[in-house]
Amino acid sequence: MSIAVAAVIRTPVCLRLLQAVLGLCALLAAWPLSGLWRSLPASGQLVGGYALGWSGALLSAAGGVFLLALLRRRRKPQALDISPVGQLRLAVYLEHGAAPDAGAAGLVQPAGPGPVAAPGLRLLPGSTLWPSLLVLCLADAAGRRTAVLVQRGGSCTAFRPLAVACRAIAARNREE
Question: Which residue spans traverse the membrane (predicted)?
Fold first, then answer.
């Protein structure tokens, strides 16, 4: 049985939306944490000691700004290729929109504006293979690690074959 798969992985939109909501919530939580509401005449008896002071408010605001600033960073699509014998290769595209379709042969090109490929990778034991989410922990021969998040849906159209191939590789690693 061949487990060859080529999949283009993009950042899931719902995760970016969740990051934006968490950043906005952290920014909005800075005002109640600061304790400014205590100076209002009608709010003296309503809330107990939930205010952390200015230090808590500044930490909350800084965390919110940090999350929102990370959204501005453009995430590049990645191509994950699994050979018929189970070797993994991850390629990161240099230009936006340069990703070919997932079934294209010769997905990794050596030069030009296409993808830049890493050498052969291996699947680490810390990888999570759930039915609708894959968190792949990969490492190369030099020991450099990378994590790839693959979610079922629009971010990866070849999710099911990729999940089956990753489970087969994990089973082979467990036997060895």
Answer: 12-31, 51-71
